[in-house]
TrEMBL record:
GO terms for cellular component: outer membrane. This is Bacterial surface antigen (D15) domain-containing protein. Keywords: Membrane, Signal. The lineage of its organism: Bacteria, Pseudomonadati, Pseudomonadota, Gammaproteobacteria, Pseudomonadales. InterPro entries: Bac_surfAg_D15. It is found in: Membrane. Pfam families: Omp85 (PF01103). The keyword Transmembrane helix does not apply. Residues 178-547 form the Bacterial surface antigen (D15) domain. The keyword Transmembrane helix does not apply. It comes from Marinobacter nauticus. Residues 1-19 form the signal peptide. Transmembrane segments: none annotated.
Length: 565
């Protein structure tokens, strides 16, 4: 009897096992898998989209992290002793560090926007060269999300020289934006420029204890002062985050100069103390448009002292303190487009295909410790005019300044209107770029100057060559993006450019040795590593000034590190 019962039970279990489907049989695998994606080809990343049809209400059941080393030694072109050694010496980014960057977790309702936003966050990290996030498996009402990322070599000693506007800057140091694979950044550096020498130490943690809180501090020991800063914040880490909070402080002392015709005519000591605490709340969202409420308190104190053995300034800035609560709003359109070869070399770039408007209004009163009663108003607006596969155009408007109630006038009022246009680089190896910016200022204090020269866009001229309360700058560039990848280490680009601009005073004051419009032409080389410090590129420009006085060299050589093309 027992044997018969065991036989029946065994047959029943066998029948159940035979009739049941295995987990793999109940799942559908995407045609696109991370192994197929070439992270050295940005257009390949954009083209690889999942073919799965995700049912409404599906959940994210699992998150799979796939990390690629710096060099793919399975590729014969990268299979050598040096690349093997660098892979071995590099500490891979912790999986927990990558997971903490994502704006979704297992169990969340699936939304394509969550995956797209996580890609944007990962692409901003200095320790990654590229990232891809996609659905790779559908099992009933649950999806598997795969996160593909490739490390970059981050422990980098630096020793170099930068030349811009006729001035040289030397630097040396060591930094690591991915210390031991943790995603945390630290470094020490020494810099010497025409104004000062400076030794700096900094630490930055973008995900404190694996959370979305961020913290950091820096200390600067200068030949003419010091600098200290620290912050702690929980930002709007995602478009879907409901709140933010931040607190920050700065203590900075340095010597500053006033310039006339690229010459420093007098130096003075400036001290700045700054403290801020603020919060924000997401109020509403509709049709990709989101409204956030912002509020906080700021304290900012400036002190000025003459230096011994220096020519006396005609007007030494008055000490001023602003202490004010403020309220504002952030209204944005959360729509983006992925493009290539706009400001980077052969990298996927995320550009906002919509508007972003932020406004702050505060009242700085003597009852709160301010030196005068002021109304503080800051505003910025940015919007895209055109965003297609081959074209991207945007414009922006910004304004900052205060209104002094005791003198019934504005002070340090600054407004800028700018336009940018890119054409062709996303699908061809050549492209056009042009930009136009106009800035107007009113009632600037003596420590504030509106300058133009080699350091801020007019590449054929010395730094601070003209000054005024109006400034205009136009740039036109023909850019070259060859799909050439020597040793799988570098990307190269070229540029032919024309700059034209001027700074002047509306009341006709002298604005420098050459008062008219300044023009230059030139050629340049761009060099960006695809494996080391990928967020910056080397700029080498030769600029020929077409105007100016006899003191200007006929050729300006500029050697700089920049984050944009």
């Amino acid at each position: 009897m027992c044997r018969r019962g065991l036989l029946v039970a065994g047959l029943m279990l066998a029948g159940l096992a035979f009739g049941a489907e295995s987990p793999d049989e109940a799942c559908t695998v995407s045609d696109i898998q991370p192994e197929m994606i070439d992270l050295d080809k940005p257009r390949d990343q954009l083209a690889r989209q999942s073919n799965l049809v995700i049912p409404p209400g599906a959940k994210i059941g699992s998150i799979r992290i796939i990390q690629r080393p710096i060099f793919d030694t399975s590729d014969p072109k990268q299979d050598n002793f040096l690349y093997h050694a660098l892979n071995t010496l590099n500490t891979p980014t912790w999986e927990s560090a990558l997971r903490s960057q994502l704006v979704f977790v297992e169990g969340d309702i699936y939304s394509p926007g969550l995956l797209e936003e996580s890609e944007r966050v990962l692409r901003q990290r200095e320790y990654l060269t590229a990232a891809w996030v996609g659905v790779t498996r559908l099992c009933g009402d649950e999806v598997e999300v795969s996160v593909l990322a490739r490390d970059t070599w981050t422990l980098l000693p630096t020793l170099g020289i930068t030349r811009s506007g006729g001035d040289n800057t030397t630097n040396a140091g060591i930094s690591d934006p991915n210390f031991l694979g943790s995603g945390k950044s630290l470094g020490i550096s020494y810099t010497k420029d025409p104004d000062r020498s400076e030794t700096s130490v900094f630490v930055d943690d973008p995900n404190v204890i694996g959370s979305h809180w961020q913290a950091g501090f820096s200390y600067d020991d200068r030949s003419d002062g010091r600098g200290r800063s620290a912050y702690l914040e929980r930002p709007f880490f995602s478009d879907r985050a409901n709140w933010r909070f931040g607190v920050a402080g700065v203590d900075d002392v340095r010597e500053e100069s006033r310039y006339v015709g690229a010459q420093a005519i007098a130096d003075y000591r400036r001290s700045r103390e700054y403290f801020s605490i603020d919060g924000g709340w997401r109020l509403a969202e509709r049709n990709e448009r989101q409204l956030r409420l912002l509020a906080g308190y700021r304290y900012e104190a400036f002190g000025f002292q003459p230096l011994p053995d220096q020519p006396a300034l005609d007007v030494l800035p008055d000490d001023r303190t602003l202490s004010y609560p403020w309220i504002g709003f952030d209204y944005r359109q959360n729509r983006f487009r992925e493009m290539t070869n706009l400001t980077r070399l052969q990298r996927v770039e995320d550009v906002r295909d919509g508007f972003l408007w932020r406004t702050e209004l505060g009242y700085s009163g003597s009852g709160l410790g301010a030196t005068e009663d002021r109304v503080v108003l800051n505003m910025s607006f940015q919007d895209s005019l055109l965003a297609t596969e081959t074209n991207y155009a945007s414009y922006g408007l910004s304004q900052s300044g205060t209104y002094r109630l005791d003198q019934d006038r504005v002070e340090n009022l600054l407004g800028t209107l700018s336009l940018e246009y890119f054409h062709g680089g996303s699908v061809r190896w050549t492209g056009w770029y042009t930009s136009l910016a106009f800035t107007a200022a009113r009632n600037l204090t003596a420590d504030q100057q509106l300058l133009i020269g080699g350091e801020n866009g007019l590449r054929g001229y010395p730094s601070e060559y003209q000054q005024g309360d109006r400034r205009v700058l136009w740039t036109l560039e023909r850019r070259y993006f060859p799909d050439w990848h020597p040793f799988k280490l570098f990307r190269m680009g070229g540029v032919v450019f024309v700059d034209a601009g001027r700074a002047w005073f509306a009341d006709g004051q002298s604005n420098g040795p050459a008062g008219g419009v300044l023009r230059d032409v030139g050629v340049g080389l761009r060099l960006a590593s695809s494996r080391v410090e990928v967020q910056r590129m080397l700029h080498f420009d030769l600029a020929f000034p077409l105007d100016g006085d006899d003191s200007i060299d006929a050729l300006q050589v500029l050697l700089r590190g920049r984050s944009r093309f």
